[in-house]
Amino acid sequence: MTNRIDEQFNQLKAEQRCGFIPFIVAGDPSLEVTGKLLIELSRNGASVIELGVPFSDPVADGVTIQAAAERALKNPISVRAILDTVAEVRRAGCATPIILFSYFNPILQFGLREFAGRAVEAGVDGLLVTDLVPEEAEEFRTILTEKNLALIMLAAPTSSDERLKKICEKASGFVYAVSRAGVTGARAALSADAENLVARIRKYTALPVAVGFGISTAAQVADTWKYADAAVVGSALVAEIARLSAFTDQSTDEMVAALGRFTADLLPG
């Protein structure tokens, strides 16, 4: 049974195009802005949207996304409120696939089955759980499969072939290839490790492969599209949100529109 993620990648493949996946942190600078921005990203070329659940100890993230999580956590925010925001966006007509990017603890605290049920009701299409390793993923994967929710798995250049095989066996929707070892963050140049990693992943799965961590320009998106099915841009967009949030003389709608233009400019050609 397919969901919106599968349908999107099938359409991209049929049109011989690659995907663009922006990442934002829920609640930065507010959930009101997050809801409007999800719609704006959808209008400006997003194939899939990753929505980060702010967490107090984001060990996989660099300083930009850590700072965004800290800002979000200063607001009244919860997993339930984030799901409510997604539900509002769906009611507004946004059909772009949405993936929640989270650490496992907030989901565990919510309750695995209750979380999956609420997520699918809200209109979430998949989960990427940063610190959920393949060896510990089966229970949650089974619950998500019952709800037709994808479990996106991370693969790193340092992963052995044996580990890549395990990752691919647990994954659905697509596999997220980390372009380099380390934490998230924009980089002036991408590592050659990413292309090699994508080739290694393809030995073990027919799922689409998206590459992220460090992609921050239209040129880097274009380079990534030469060998991967999609490119993920996170820190560059999150940094722009922080920059625009500092201007107190603009309305929320003006800020969201500016972020939409920034996002559109990340698309090649």
Write out key terms for the chains shown.
269 residues, alpha/beta, 12 helices, 8 strands
Q: Could you tell me the strand content as a percent range?
A: 5-15%
How many β strands by DSSP?
8
Helix content: 40-55%
Distance between the termini: 34 Å
Fold blueprint:
Elements lengths: L3 H11 L4 E7 L5 H13 L5 E4 L10 H11 L5 H13 L6 E5 L1 H7 L1 H11 L3 E4 L8 H9 L3 E6 L5 H10 L4 E4 L14 H10 L6 E4 L5 H8 L4 E4 L1 H11 L6 H13 L5
Parallel strand pairs: 1-2, 1-8, 2-3, 3-4, 4-5, 5-6, 6-7, 7-8
What does this entry look like structurally?
- With 269 residues, the chain is of the alpha/beta class.
- The chain has a single domain, classed as TIM Barrel (Alpha-Beta Barrel).
- 47% of the residues lie in helices and 14% in strands.
- Strands 1-2-3-4-5-6-7-8 form an eight-stranded parallel β-barrel, surrounded by nine helices.
- The chain starts with a helix and ends in a 5-residue tail after the last helix.
Summarize the structure.
With 269 residues, the protein is α/β, with parallel strands linked by helices.
